[in-house]
Design goal:
The complex is a heterodimer of chains A (406) and B (933). Chain A is mostly beta strands and 406 residues long. Chain A has 4 domains: 1-29; 46-134, Immunoglobulin-like, CATH 2.60.40; 141-189 and 219-295 and 321-331, Immunoglobulin-like, CATH 2.60.40; 195-218 and 338-388, no CATH class. Chain A is 10% helix and 37% strand. Chain A has helices spanning 3-9, 17-29, 270-283, 356-359, 385-388; strands spanning 46-53, 58-65, 82-87, 92-94, 96-97, 102-105, 115-121, 127-130, 133-134, 141-148, 160-168, 176-188, 195-198, 205-208, 217-223, 228-231, 239-249, 258-267, 301-303, 311-312, 317-318, 321-328, 348-351, 363-370, 377-384. In chain A, strands 1, 2, 5, 6, 20 and 21 form a 6-stranded mixed beta sheet that branches. In chain A, β13 (195-198) and β14 (205-208) form a beta hairpin. Chain A is globular and about 85 Å long. Chain A starts with a helix and ends in an 18-residue tail after the last helix. The model of chain A is unreliable at 1-35 (pLDDT under 50). Chain B is mainly beta and 933 residues long. Chain B folds into 2 domains: 1-137, Phage tail protein beta-alpha-beta fold (3-Layer(bab) Sandwich); 272-932, Maltoporin, Chain A, CATH 2.40.170. Chain B contains 11 helices and 59 strands. In chain B, β16 (302-304) and β17 (312-314) form a beta hairpin. In chain B, α2 (15-25) crosses α6. Mean pLDDT of chain B is 79; it is low at 1-34, 116-149 and 250-262. The chains are: A mainly beta (406), B mainly beta (933). At the A-B interface, α1, α2, β17 and α3 of A face β50, β52, β53, β55 and β57 of B.
Chain lengths: 406, 933
């Protein structure tokens, strides 16, 4: 075998090899493609969502079914079930079927230290029961702190505020906590509507609004979107210190006016902590290079007749400790008020004699157009509804001021 | 000059004989009837040179001789009209010199034995066509080396005539060394008379022993990366023969003698690959860093744990089932920069061996493979260095002879400047991040005497990275080894090694002074090993030895930083264990065609106190409720002992000269495993010893392979099939917590695994185009079915293991465009690894959640990547002080976004979204400059 034969074998006679290298590369280039996840069958497992609170004596449970992944529809409610809250060696409380899969009981007398479980009997005869779990008293929240970001932008303003909490729990031996919060913030519509069209009494008249901010100031309330859990296993004291629960970017405009957060702290059992931790691992702590593998997370419900049939969710009677903090923009130094002007929102003028009904389709009146010399009303300004009605402006809140807001 | 040129063409046939022929060029080629020339001369105490000058003048002939052999001669003679023959006969009588003449008026002077003027017939047979008629630019012959080369064809006496024993055979011992730096050549095949089946391999000192019938032989030596060498010998009695081999010079027009059978057919081991650094350096890699482990991953049966991991998956076994030895010392975490590349500096490495089917009895403690990385000995003759600059790293290696031919020092270091690069990125995230690493190697090689060589090696690699200023990760690997290689008798050698290896990681968080902490974990292993190799007669080679390893693991220490911190000192009790092993193996050539390797390894493992061990009710799940107490063991007390035999058997049958059939059976026991619940091995994964509850892993493997070489070994074709059964493989319960877990036994479970597959490889070893194509079919399955322990996964049925990739295809090729420019292409394809996908979604408190069902029921999309590289070597002139080479490489030239993982995450609105992540989804070009001096 001499070299010539080898060359022939590999089609690499002089000058030709570039061609083959080229072909190889082009072949390789054509291999780019997109990934589409396979469609998985919907098993339609029962989902139990809800809790009972010792302090309020209420229990609210929602029963639904699981959906296929990326489903945009609302979950199917589980109707006509019997739901009973059972105290170990004690009373049973039956929950009222409030329709749409909601089951509620009020005025319950629940106590700390006792064990409770939930029993569910479905319309199809299947029985699910949660494990008996004790109730722990939650410690009070000591502080809710607002910490500005260390880095400041060129004009010395902060980029974001971190919210963290402190709590001391010297009494309980339990070391597991779950935290959530409900935040409310005031926001404004880009344009202000001070007049409105009044059609009462068969008359069409344009009147000034009693409250000029009626559709200008709105409030949005939202709940926390991630699982916040904390344990003090590695600490000498049962103390929650500066546990970060939220980060608010100034650019979200949530801090433009007033911001309020109701933080809830719940002492939970080790079982519930494990459940929440795994749930969090599965759906929040993913996407890094060293992710742990997802696991099957079920909760604490069992079908006594069929162990392979799972109901998802975790039930325990909780004790609620909550604290509210409210801040105005001026309470937070170096916090810029982000402009709410929008390129899509601008007033347009209309003349007085035009049929007012016809031109207000999808529009809202802003103010009178006044002749600067005569002082007479010569027309109106209007704008698109989602520019001047804060209820239609994102994030689409309410214009009824909650009483805790300044 | 025409004559000159045509003659020169002949020179190119073999570098080995090139110098030999150069003699012809320096002489005028005039034929003369020297027999008839009469010589008249008087020599009185004349030197041999004076004698030669006179005779050359008168007889118009030319002498070739070794000055050292003739220096001391004094010639006293008077010649009066004598013929040349008469003159030479007279000199022969008075001195021990022998003269051989050829028809071209050349006279070769040797001592004792005359040179045979008939070259061995087969010598010119494998002649390769000459392509380039120009003189190679780099080779400047010296007289010294020419004589050395002339030795190739001149018969050498081995032993002495006076010391004749009655035995019909005699033993030759000697060293095979690299001519350039006197380094021993390990694993070279030494054989006689074209029958490599009777060959022997050199040991770590380059030492060999071969027994041959007395008489004339041709001894040949083959080794990877070296040019074949040979000697004509006349074996009189036991004696010595040292052979220096030349490195195969790549950039010169290659001349290869290809009529010998190669070692892949010959050697006993199957599923074994050996690669030298030259072939490793040709392979394009990410960021242009030559990477041993990345090249190993292109071999059949070897896969990667993921794009960002240097974890090797060998025949379906997890990454911790590979014993990675660097200079005989185990390295636990051989990766840099989150695992993007391995922590072995290619400049200090000599070669790499991977054993995946039949693991020799001297190695144990891991189930899947042994990856043996052999460090270089520094040049003993002259100072040398190597410097390189790449996208990420700068490196420098120096070879310093401390005492010529006696002691040398090798030091090599590599460091990043990524910190500097990150700071240049105008994004805060990058500026606040840092990633840096370095590795350092040093080795002193000392030849105590001809029989003993001592080596002291040190290795240190360190990584540090943080994604924001507050949390920092650090990890360190260290190893220190002393090795003593001795020749006890001619056919009896030993290697003693003793060393320490240490690995530790640390996470430091200063985010909040109230709970600032430091988390660390470490593993310390000290091991001592002694190996003997004994040749018994012609056909038995015995290997035996013993090894002891002591492990001390700190699974996790959590400590506060600063006075303000209320972090609680948490410490998981340290673990200690002793692993001892003895082995004996015989390599027995039953017939020239049929050989058997029978080895037996016995290992004993003691889990040692002091320690508190949780005890549970028998045959009940290991849960809090079933715990019945805690047993306290004193320091040094045996808590649990595991022991077992590990048979290692291999058979080889040569079907033809170029084909062999091999089979092997192996059992391996593993007492230490890495706990990793992540897809890729993370630097923070801790190691765990087998303990009271967690049993050692045991694997049995059967392999059968067929090996065939074609076209004078230009192509090596191999195929192997294997079946592996793993008892007590380490696995985890769903949602296991592995770090700082005081009841880790509740989260770790013993599973059952099986793996099987077939591997095919075609390798072209010579010519302008070389490289290999390999295809592997493999399955790796796991079963977790232990209802009494409440551990049942996927209904107790077999499911695909985390690294089950049924199909994989690799191409690695290098094409020499010119002497100095070469092009490399790397193509990798494999089936996507299994993943667990969610079955359903649901809402809890308004947040979308997902429900994952059975483990590993789906796969990520297939992996495909191709890399290219151009390697340009600078001028090869020997006179030049600095030799530069440039490598331009593009990793993932197609920019394919290979899916690394798929995950589902609730976004800030609580809405569930599916994402796929790819690493290096764009082509990454790199320019690397290397400089040798």
């Amino acid at each position: 075998m001499n070299l010539k034969n080898v060359k022939n074998l590999f089609f690499l006679k002089s000058n030709k090899y570039w061609k083959y290298i080229y072909i190889l590369i082009v072949f390789a280039l054509s291999c780019v493609e997109q990934y589409t996840p396979p469609t998985l069958s919907n098993k339609g497992l029962l989902v139990v969502n809800g809790t009972a609170y010792v302090e309020t004596g209420t229990c609210a449970i929602q029963l639904t079914r699981t959906q296929t992944i990326n489903s945009k529809e609302n979950p199917t409610p589980e109707l006509n079930a019997d739901v009973v809250l059972e105290e170990e060696f004690g009373n049973n409380f039956k929950l009222n079927d409030n329709k749409n899969g909601n089951y509620v009981a009020t005025n319950l007398s629940l106590s700390y230290g006792k064990k409770y479980r939930l029993k569910i009997k479905l319309e199809n005869g299947k029985n699910y029961v949660s494990t008996f779990l004790a109730t722990y008293k939650s410690p009070p929240i000591k502080n809710i702190n607002f910490e500005p970001s260390e880095e400041k932008n060129v004009i010395g303003n902060v980029d974001y505020w971190d919210i963290n909490i402190d709590a001391d729990d010297p009494e309980t031996r339990n070391k597991y906590y779950a935290i959530d919060y409900i935040e409310t913030w005031e926001y404004r519509s880009p344009l202000k509507s001070t007049i409105y069209l009044d059609n009462r009494f068969g008359l069409t008249q344009i009147l000034y609004r009693d409250d000029p901010d009626e559709l200008h100031k709105c409030w949005k309330t939202d709940s926390s979107k991630s699982i916040l859990i904390y344990n003090t296993l590695n600490l000498n004291e049962n103390k929650i210190s500066e546990f970060k629960i939220n980060k608010i970017n100034v650019s979200t405009k949530k801090l433009n006016n007033a911001y309020s957060s109701l933080v809830r702290l719940t002492t939970i059992s080790q079982e519930e902590y494990r459940y929440l931790e795994n749930l969090k691992k599965n759906s929040e702590l993913t996407g890094s290079i060293f992710d742990s593998q997802p696991s099957k997370v079920i909760g604490n419900f069992l079908n006594l007749e069929d162990k392979k049939d799972n109901a998802l969710g975790f039930f325990a009677v909780h004790s609620l400790s909550q604290k509210r903090t409210t801040k105005k923009n001026t309470d937070l130094p170096n916090t810029e008020v982000i402009s709410i002007q929008s390129e899509d929102c601008f007033p347009t003028s209309i003349d007085d004699n035009q049929g007012i009904d016809a031109i207000l389709q999808g529009y809202i009146l802003l103010s009178f157009k006044i002749d600067p010399f005569t002082g007479k009303i010569i027309g109106y300004y209007r704008a698109q509804q989602d520019c001047a009605d804060c209820r239609l402006v994102l994030p689409k809140g309410t214009n009824i001021k909650p009483d805790y807001m300044p | 000059m025409n004559n000159f040129k045509t003659k020169f063409v002949v020179l190119k046939e073999a570098l080995k004989i090139l110098i030999f022929f150069l003699f012809f060029l320096n002489t005028t080629n005039v034929y003369s009837q020297y027999e008839n020339t009469k010589i008249n001369a008087i020599f009185s105490n004349a030197t041999f040179i004076e004698f030669v000058n006179e005779i050359e003048k008168q007889a118009n002939c030319f002498f070739y001789y070794d000055k050292t052999q003739t220096d001391s001669l004094k010639i006293n003679a008077t010649f009066n009209n004598n013929t040349l023959n008469e003159v030479l006969e007279y000199i022969t009588k008075t001195t021990k010199l022998k003269f051989s003449k050829d028809e071209k008026n050349s006279i070769y002077v040797t001592k004792n034995t005359a040179l045979e003027m008939q070259l061995p017939i087969r010598y010119f047979e494998p002649t390769v066509e000459i392509e380039d008629k120009s003189i190679p630019e780099y080779y400047t012959p010296t007289k010294q080396s020419s004589i050395k080369s002339a030795l190739e064809n001149r018969p050498i006496d081995i032993g002495s005539k006076t010391n004749v024993s009655k035995s019909k055979t005699a033993k030759i011992t000697g060293y095979i060394k690299d001519e350039k730096n006197n380094e021993p050549i390990i694993g070279a095949l030494v054989f006689a008379d074209n029958t490599p089946t009777n060959g022997v391999s050199t040991d770590v000192n380059g030492f060999f022993t071969i027994i041959l019938p007395k008489g004339k032989h041709e001894i040949a030596v083959k080794s990877i990366g070296m040019k074949n060498a040979k000697r004509q010998i006349i074996l009189l009695s036991d004696g010595k023969l040292n052979i220096e081999m030349k490195e195969e010079v790549v950039s010169i027009n290659e001349v290869v003698i290809t009529d010998k059978r190669a070692s892949n057919i010959e050697r006993m081991q199957m599923g074994m690959e050996k690669m030298d650094m030259k072939s490793i350096k040709q392979v394009p890699t990410v960021f242009g860093e030559s990477d041993i482990v990345r090249v190993v991953m292109a071999l059949p049966g070897v896969q990667t744990a993921g794009e960002s991991s240097t974890g090797l998956i060998v025949r379906g076994g997890s990454a911790d089932q590979n014993l990675i030895l660097f200079n005989e010392s185990p390295i636990y975490n051989p990766s840099h920069l989150f695992g993007f590349f391995s922590s072995f500096n290619p400049d200090v490495v000599k070669d790499v061996e991977l054993f995946k089917s039949s693991i020799p009895a001297e190695y144990g403690g891991r189930l899947s493979s042994v990856l043996k990385i052999n460090g270089k000995d520094a040049d003993m003759k002259k100072f040398q260095g190597n410097a390189g600059l790449g996208l990420l790293t700068a490196k420098l290696t120096l070879e310093i002879p401390i005492k010529k031919e006696k002691t040398s020092l090798l030091i090599g270091g590599r460091s990043t400047y990524t910190d500097f690069l990150l700071k240049q990125v105008p994004l805060k995230v990058f500026q606040n991040s840092s990633a840096s690493f370095f590795d350092f190697n040093a080795q002193i090689t000392h030849r105590i005497n001809t029989k003993n060589t001592l080596r002291l090696s040190a290795y240190n690699s360190s990584d540090k990275f943080s994604f924001s200023l507050d949390t920092q990760f650090r990890y360190v690997n260290q190893s220190y080894v002393v090795r003593l290689n001795s020749i006890l008798k001619n056919n009896f050698t030993s290697e003693f090694s003793s060393g320490l290896s240490r690995t530790n990681f640390e996470v430091v968080s200063n985010l909040n002074p109230i709970n600032a902490y430091n988390l660390s974990s470490s593993i310390l292993q000290s091991n001592t090993k002694v190996d003997f190799k004994l040749g018994l007669g012609h056909s038995h080679k015995l290997d035996f030895g013993a090894a002891v390893a002591y492990y001390a693991i700190k699974p996790g220490d959590f400590a506060p930083i600063g006075d303000a911190s209320i972090a609680k000192n948490t410490s998981i009790e340290p673990e200690k264990a002793l692993e001892s092993a003895f082995y004996l193996a015989d390599n027995y050539d039953i017939t020239p065609r049929f050989s058997i390797y029978a080895g037996l390894r016995f290992s004993i493992y003691n889990y040692l106190g002091s320690k508190n061990v949780n005890k549970y009710k028998e045959n009940m799940p290991l849960t809090e409720e079933n715990m019945i107490g805690v047993d306290t063991y004193k320091s040094g007390q045996f808590i649990k002992t595991y022991a077992g035999l590990e048979p290692r058997i291999a058979l080889k049958y040569s079907l033809t000269e170029n084909t062999s059939l091999k089979a092997s059976y192996n059992r391996n026991r593993q007492y230490i495993s890495q706990l990793s619940n992540a897809t890729a091995i993370a630097p923070t994964d801790i190691w765990k010893l087998s303990d009271y509850h967690i049993r050692p892993q045991i694997a049995d493997q059967i392999s059968i392979g067929l090996y065939k070489n074609l076209k004078q070994n230009m192509f090596e074709i191999s195929t192997e099939i294997y079946y592996k059964n793993i008892i007590d493989a380490v696995d985890y319960i769903d949602g296991a917590r592995l770090l700082l877990n005081k009841t880790i036994e509740r989260d770790v479970i013993n599973a059952h695994g099986k793996a099987y597959g077939a591997e095919f490889m075609i390798k072209k070893t010579q010519g302008k185009l070389n490289g290999w194509v390999s295809y592997t079919f493999s399955r790796s399955l796991v079963q977790i079915n232990n209802p009494t322990q409440n551990n049942v996964v996927n209904n107790g049925e077999y499911f695909a293991g985390n690294f089950d990739k049924p199909h994989s295809l690799n191409f690695i090729g290098n094409y020499k465009i010119t002497k100095r420019l070469s092009f490399s292409l790397n193509v990798v394809y494999s089936t996507g690894r299994p993943i667990t996908l969610p079955n359903a979604q649901y809402k809890i408190d308004g947040i979308d959640r997902i429900f994952y069902s059975d483990r590993n029921q789906y796969r990520i999309p297939d992996y495909f990547r191709s890399d290219i590289a151009f390697n340009l070597d600078g001028n090869h002139s020997l006179k030049q002080k600095l030799h530069f080479s440039w490598t331009l490489s593009v990793y993932n030239v197609t920019g394919r976004q290979n899916v690394y993982s798929i995950f589902f995450k609730s976004d800030s609105n609580g809405e569930l979204k599916g994402y796929q992540m790819s690493i290096f989804g764009i082509p990454i070009p790199t320019l690397t400059v290397n400089c040798r001096f």
